[in-house]
What we know:
Blueprint lengths: L14 H12 L8 H4 L7 E9 L4 E9 L5 E6 L11 H9 L3 E5 L13 H4 L2 H10 L4 E7 L1 H12 L5 E5 L9 H10 L14 H9 L1 E4 L3 E4 L3 H14 L1 H5 L7 E6 L7 H10 L4 E6 L11 H15 L2
Parallel strand pairs: 3-4, 3-5, 5-6, 6-9, 9-10
Antiparallel strand pairs: 1-2, 2-4, 7-8
Helix pairs in contact: 1-8, 3-12
Amino acid sequence: xxxxxxxxxxxxxxxxxxxxxxxxxxxxxxxxxxxxxxxxxxxxxxxxxxxxxxxxxxxxxxxxxxxxxxxxxxxxxxxxxxxxxxxxxxxxxxxxxxxxxxxxxxxxxxxxxxxxxxxxxxxxxxxxxxxxxxxxxxxxxxxxxxxxxxxxxxxxxxxxxxxxxxxxxxxxxxxxxxxxxxxxxxxxxxxxxxxxxxxxxxxxxxxxxxxxxxxxxxxxxxxxxxxxxxxxxxxxxxxxxxxxxxxxxxxxxxxxxxxxxxxxxxxxxxxxxxxxxxxxxxxxxxxxxxxxxxxxxxxxxxxxxxxxxxxxxx
Length: 314
């Protein structure tokens, strides 16, 4: 897969890595809205269980969120590359729990507590294992994935027509990103409409996923804002071939959500995927949102749950 790199030479870390580190250090106040999700009080409307997905020869660290008033349906939530923490997805998870869905969240290979390097061959086992785990507890299962997680959800749905619904957040079909496009994606995080987020989440915590390293099999460790990350992701997405598998998804209602400032998943890319999917499928575009800031947008959570409710009968 082609990678276009211009403007900065071949240093191992991009200037955006140092910028993110500097900003995180300057604005280091502690405000993390994922804590009530992970450590609910005695009066909370959900409970949390730490577990492992069983893949036979190995396990995958996972967290199950179960609402007090569960509706009998479960969601396998697959995170983006470089962002295995619950924090970036707190709005989504909170909204799904409020709607009564049990949510299974797990750490992909190469991330966090998962010691295995990230490779196309091994990571494909994880979402099917999560589906098997949830099906032992709920009546029906849906999938929600972000970026790389959406590609893995798509691949799982191509092999499992019995899924109730699927939402793909910013699904990349390929990764071809110049330094200037990466700069545009980075600057979009500081757009004025995102300022209210800092009343809920400190900038230090918001930027933490950008600085956490991913262990790519054959490509080494790279943070999301490093140049090596883009090359490793380009190789991984090409191996996973999301567009080639989209036409194999049969009978799974699918919604694509993306931001119209997304440099990683431009409009033409999401339209390609929509055209390849079987009906029912649709695409929701959120204005002035980038690949990353789509996560913190309340309308993303609303549109996700609306689609799940429509097709999972709750």
